[in-house]
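Notes to self after the Tuesday call (sharing in case useful).
The group wants a holo model before anyone commits to mutagenesis around the pocket. I volunteered. Ligand is aspartic acid. Logging inputs and output together so the record is complete.
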Amino acid sequence: MKTFIYLIFAFLAFSACKNESKEASKNLQNESEKVEFSIIIHGGAGSIRRENMSEEKEAEYRKKLEEAIRVGYDVLKNGGTSLDAVQNTINILEDSPLFNAGKGAVFTYEGVNEHDASIMEGKTLNAGASAGTKTVKNPINLARAVMDNSPHVMLSREGAEAFAAEEGLEIVEPSYFSTEKKLKSLERAKASEKNKVASFYDADLQDSKFGTVGCAALDKHGNLAAGTSTGGMTNKRWGRIGDSPIIGAGTYANNSTCAVSSTGWGEFFIRGMVAHDISALMEYKGLTLKEASHLVIQTKLPELGGDGGIVAIDKNGNMVMEFNTQGMFRATMDDKGELYIGMFKNE
Ligand code: ASP
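Result:
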């Protein structure tokens, strides 16, 4: 009998070890295996909970996320650049009123929509950004034009709009961006404003979702790129600019490490230089993308008082979606065409 029990124990211990080593090698394999190309997107992080969302709304978000990522996926599959994949994917999200970018952007205190965007190429560390524009239909296209066709990295407000017009980018009436839903958010924000300080410091608003859009991609040529586009935060004032157009905070790409797009409470992403910090932890400390993203989003950012998330890809095509909020609109596609779409925690 005793021998029999020993035998059972020995068998259990052996199978536990076997499972463990299987897990470990699975992780290892994931992080060292190089995929040909991959793409990842977000549509903002925040208080995105299943119990607060109707089935129809959920389906609408999933459909738009899929449409957007498939556009970038096709670019990559056909041998296009990660920059084009990022830009074209973001265009779809900017044109959708579901997200806080392009059409559907949140309102400033003055009741207008002001857009920020940035894009970066990992091969050259070239980058472009625009801040505070009110009439450029697709701000990510302006960021790209700043990068490609100007000697600068960031242009702002009227100057950026004049440059956009010279570049032949689509200019629209400011009313194009306006949506009923975001106007209501502004009214709510103003009603809860406790003092003259921009009310996104109010706890209720901190709890609402952010809705910025972003994308990171690795192309067949081994080049990484990332981009981000946003209307900023509801009730922003005094020409407030968030992290989205700041290279290193909202967007970063470097072929030797990773490409990152951020979403969340911008002031903290700027102070933490979140996107660059993830890259730096990989470069200087040898962390994997997963370890670096986890450390920055789950420890360093909350320690500062900030919340939000990132999507990122490393030079081998490994993808990470890390957020410390209730949810984050997100999707990934790899070179096998496998699609993942998520919105809530733990899915
Ligand atoms: N990060 C953006 C900002 O602070 C907001 C967002 O991610 O939705 O402007």
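Two things stood out.
The chain has two domains: 1-32, 36-344.
The first strand starts at residue 38 and ends at 46.
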